[in-house]
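Hey, I'm writing a tutorial for new members on how sequence and structure tokens pair up, and I'd like a real worked example in the thread rather than a made-up one. If someone can provide the structure for the chain below, I'll link this post from the tutorial.
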Amino acid sequence: MRSRVWRGTTAAVLGGLLAAGCGSGDGGGGGEAGTAAGKGDSVGYPVTVTDCRGARTTFPDAPKHIVTSNASSLELLLRLGAGDKVIGTGFPPGKGTLPGELDAQAQQVKVLGKTLIPKEKLLGSGADLYIDTFASMNMGAGMGDAPTEEEFKAAGIKHIFLKSTACAAESKSPVTDLSAVEDDITSLGAVTGTRAKAKELVDGMKEKVEAVRKAVGGTPEKERPTYFFFDYDAGTKQPMAVCNRQVAHAVITLAGARNVFADCDGDYRQVGWEDVIAKNPDWIQLGVRNRGSEAGNEKAFDEAREWLESNPATKGLKAVKEGHFLRIGSERTTIAGVGNADTVQEIAKTLYRGKAGRR
């Protein structure tokens, strides 16, 4: 059985992980949104942000009518307190997907497209800002007929990206931290005039991740448990691997685990069950998408586990035989957002619980 090194302070640090709180503070100063801009929420304009290739977009003041491409950017705006500026979204979050008040607010946002927003509807939406999670400049025929930058400009719509997701395919190296997610939050805070809240959210994420780093950072790489994210909703015939450019890879790595498909360049890739068997992971995350209720989620987790336990190709896996499953939803693992830091904590507490002691 694989041994794992545990430092003397680890148990104490992990014991306090769930108590890690969010920091708070005022915004900083500067013109680029990726750095702190201004000393308060009402100053700091103009604000400039860049896309994946460095093209600059400048905001002389805060946008008033925002459309989001999917639930990821919508959730970030809601958490920043800028939800009242959102007039529409694509890929809307299912009812119950977001926590508490955020869910109620999200359900009030007009749905412009259940998946991608049709080009004509987006251009005619009345938006002055479109936040794109998908890097439309690279979408091609497979992602629909996206507006050109000239068409956005003619419609009076500024077009910016969540670089933590939109730039993943162009990244030159694996993503191993949440800095891109934190930069997106900082940028959106600067653009929407919610810098103080953005700093609070980012500080909270950093505090949680740092607590995990202190707990598991001393464990040698070769002795860290191996980990497979089982995307149950992507289908069971041929598994979808989380590769090293996907934010989930950073989440897994920061939690003190080793993604079994860390050698896969890109964000996702279809693999075969023989590949998973060859990796023989120590732990498997049952990645299911939110069903809108606790009962629905538990049922989906049960189904994913039962499939692994009954399928001839997977029932002999080490993680399956030992019952090493994590019941953590897909969204806060694979979609960039504040919840990524919570998932880092949850994975770490589960994988290292035996050494830390039960509470």
